[in-house]
Structure formats: C-alpha cells, structure tokens
Specification:
By secondary structure, the chain is mainly alpha-helical. The chain is built from 15 helices and eight strands. Helix 3 packs parallel to helix 8 and helix 12 runs antiparallel to helix 14. The termini are far apart.
Length: 475
C-alpha cells in the first residue's frame, strides 16, 4: 500500500488537524466569557455606560466564537466512531463518563444560560441577568474540566479495571477519573492560558480603535484591563505549568526526557534554551543551557535526578515488551520551547504596553499599535504547540501503558476513505475559518456602536451613566 494512503497516518493527521482547528475557538470562548462577565459586573456596580458598551462589544465577539466552536466540536465525536473504533471500544466505558457529564450538566447549563443572556437584557432583572453571565462562565469552565478529565485518562489511566473477556477498560471509580492528578494540574493551566488569549484579543481590538483615535474612553479601559489580565494570567500559567510538570514527571517521565532530548539519566540536569544536534537528535553539537533548571522543573530540587530516554526505553521494554517507546524528539523538544517562549513573549509585550500607557499616556508611534494588534495570536499559538507537546509526547500510546495508537484505528476503514473525509473536513473548515475571521473582525472594527436605547425609544445621548430600569438593549 502506498505510504500516504496508510489509514493510521491519515487518521492521525485528520484527528490532529480537526482537534487543533476546534481548539482555535476553545480558549477564546473560555477566556472571553469571564472577561465579559467582569465588564458587566462593573456596569451593574457603577452604571457607567462605557462598561455596558464593552460588555456588548466583547459579548458579541464571544457569541460568534462560541457558535463556531460548537459547530467544529461536533466533528470530534464522529471521528471516534469513524476512524478510531477500536480505541472507542476499548476505552468508551471510561472515556464516555466525563464526556456524558459534560454534555448533560455543563453544556446543558451553558446552552440555557447563553439563551437567557442574549434575550434577557430588557426582560430579566439587572442582577439576575448578571447572574446569568456568571453561570455561563461557570458552565463553560466546567465543560472544559470534564473534557480535560477525559483527556487525562489517556495520559494517566485511573479508576478502571481491564475486562479480559471483552478486551476493554471498564469504569470502577468515577471519582478517581475526575480527580486525576493530570486533570487537576491541566485545568488551571488551560483556564489561565485561555484568559491570556482573550486578554490579548481585547488588547488588539482596543489598540485598533485607539490608533484611529475613536471610542477613547471605552478603548483605553479595555486596553489597560486586557494588559493587566494577560500579565496576571501568565503568572497563573507559569505556576500551574510548574505543577503540571511535576505531575508529568510522576506519570510520564519519558515525556519530560523527550522535552529536553535527555538520553542519559542525569543528576543536577541543565535546561537547554537552544540546541543544535545531529538529524536524529541523539547527539548534541551546540547548546545554550541554564544550569540545574531541568532538575528543578522535574523535582523541585536543583540536584534532583532526571531519568533519561535510554533508561526509560529499557524499563518500558521490560514492562510492555519489545518496541520503540520514544516519541518524536524534535517535535517534543521544540514544541515545549515554543510553548514557553511564546507565552513569555505575550506577557512581555503586555508589560511594555502598561509602561507605555502609564499615567494616561498614549503611544504616538504607529508601529506600537501594530505590535499590539498583531500580537493577538501569540498566546493561541503557544496553547496549540502546548497541546502538540502533550499529545505527541505521549506517543506511541493512545492510552498510556494500555493501548498503542496503532491499535486504536478502525480496522475496516481504508486509507482512501480517510483521505476523502480529511479533504472534505479541510475544505469545510477552511470556509468556516474565513467566515469566523470576517465576522469577528467586522464586530471588532465596528466597535461599540449605537446599541443602547431607552425603552421609550430615545438613545443614550452619550450619557456617562444610564438608568438600568429604563434600558432596553437588543442585538
């Protein structure tokens, strides 16, 4: 069979591309709904019109993104039965539980609250409508947790037993699945990363309007708020990432070894910022290193011992049988560094932005606004390569220690069939990407236009304060 028609390779490409595409919308949804809830809270507490305008503007961006995320997320479910039926059969009893909870609890609440929030502006009491957006934010984060708990089982299987007769894993302890150490560490890391992306999108929108010298009061508030949130969220990402690294070493030491391309077990291991090596990655030719840092990241002890790839490979062969248990080193090595580097870059830009706008100052150079606008995708790319590291670092396992990726693919699906669906999904997703981008850009460029009207039909006339009882706002 032609290699490029290998069902396993094509199925992995399809799942990777569609999952990463879906994840384009996830962090903005999670982060933006929290920021919108904060703006609406500020409006309720102060009655200042600028907070209402910011709530409506970024609420519209959130709704566009949420809708596209739902559409692209549906495809994920089809793939399990379409290309990964053996995997679904093996892990479905365990994997399905947190996903069912996500659908029945989190998503049901999410769908209900989003409807009430959209149509309840002039129908619900002000504080009740505020409670709705916070419930929407809560349900969105809960949805993320249940999905992360399902993914964590693939990284660190817990709460199950193997039914030898049926050849599958069966759930024995849902509590263990929901409190998986990997999920507990991944959850805050994901939420803080989502806040970073939402914050820089907010900064980009504000920077565009400030560069045009329009909506100055609203956009200066949004700019400063987004810059602060991005910095605070980066601190959260760093602290939660540290805990996630400790959990990773405890559950998947090969992933940490692959992240550093560390072949030999080492005490007081250094961390390389950059390495130039042989094409196979086995030999280092030149590197820039920080002494003791890898040991500290892995053990919180600068003299700690970090297991190397060679020793771990020997351990896994003794435990699981013959085979290559090493992930693709160059992918894990560089994705780990791009994740950290891009996150730090986004935070650094925000620190500079706060300095440039201190004391009411407004940057006069056009390139400064362009940097703020074009930096919007940076945290998103950091999250994407972070997930590439997470999933590729687990290879060759689809469920660590229980099932290899090559054993999970559907046996009855040909490479041509997978290729056809891959091409179809790529085309459809390409069209959706254009639609999504244009809708969000249009909403961002329009800015806080004349949305606010009183129930008697008059507009707000630029008032700084609004009587909420008389307000009747519609999308």
């Amino acid at each position: 069979m032609v290699e490029w028609l290998d069902p396993l390779i094509l199925a992995r490409w399809q799942f990777g591309l569609t999952t990463l595409y879906h994840f384009l919308f996830v962090p903005l949804t999670i982060g933006m709904v929290i920021l919108v809830a904060m703006f609406q809270t500020a409006w309720v507490r102060t009655s200042k019109l600028k907070y209402l305008h910011l709530t409506r503007l970024f609420g519209k961006i959130f709704l566009i993104n949420f809708a596209m995320g739902v559409v692209t997320g549906i495809v994920q479910e089809f793939q399990f039965g379409m290309n990964w039926s053996d995997y679904s059969r093996f892990v479905g009893d365990v994997f399905g539980a947190p996903l069912a909870m996500e659908g029945l609890l989190a998503f049901f609440l999410e769908a209900s609250m989003i409807g009430l929030w959209i149509f309840g502006w002039d129908k619900l009491p002000q504080k009740l409508h505020l409670a709705v957006i916070w419930l929407l934010a809560l349900s969105t984060t809960l949805s993320a947790y249940f999905i992360l708990a399902a993914n964590a089982f693939m990284q660190n299987p817990v709460g199950y037993e193997i039914n030898e007769e049926l050849g599958r894993a069966e759930l024995t302890d849902i509590g263990a699945v929901l409190t998986n150490p990997v999920a507990l560490a991944q959850f805050p890391h994901t939420i803080f990363a989502s806040l970073m992306f939402a914050a820089v999108v907010m900064v980009a929108v504000a920077a565009y309007h400030l560069s045009k010298n329009q909506y100055l009061d609203e956009m200066r508030t949004a700019l400063r708020f987004g810059l602060v949130v991005n910095i605070v969220a980066f601190i959260g990402v760093a602290l939660s990432g540290d805990q996630l690294g400790l959990v990773m070493v405890a559950t998947q030491p090969m992933k940490m070894a692959a992240a550093e391309a560390l072949y030999e077990t080492t005490t007081a291991a250094s961390f390389s910022l950059f390495t130039w090596g042989t094409p196979d990655g086995a030999t280092e030719l030149y590197s820039i290193r920080i002494p003791y840092l890898l040991s500290f990241l892995s053990t919180h002890d600068i003299m700690g011992t970090v297991e190397g790839i060679n020793d771990l490979q020997a351990q896994y062969q003794a435990e699981f049988g013959p085979g290559d248990y090493t992930p693709i080193i160059w992918i894990t090595y560089w994705s780990f560094r791009w994740m950290i580097g891009l996150g730090a870059l986004a935070a650094a830009i925000s620190v500079v932005g706060l300095w440039l706008t201190r004391g009411g100052r407004t940057p006069q150079k056009s390139w400064m606004w362009k940097v703020a606008i074009w930096s919007a995708p940076v945290p998103l790319v950091a999250s994407l390569v972070g997930w590439i590291f997470t999933e590729m670092g687990r290879q060759p396992w689809i469920v660590f220690g229980l099932m290899k990726t090559e054993d999970g693919v559907s046996p009855g699906v040909s490479g041509l069939e997978v290729l056809i669906s891959l091409i179809a999904f790529t085309l459809i997703y390409g069209i959706l990407a254009v639609v999504e981008f244009k809708l969000i850009v249009r909403a961002a460029v329009d800015g806080p236009k004349d949305w606010t009207k009183y129930s008697d039909g008059s507009d707000d006339n630029g008032q700084a304060d609004v009587d909420p009882a008389k307000l009747a706002t519609v999308y």
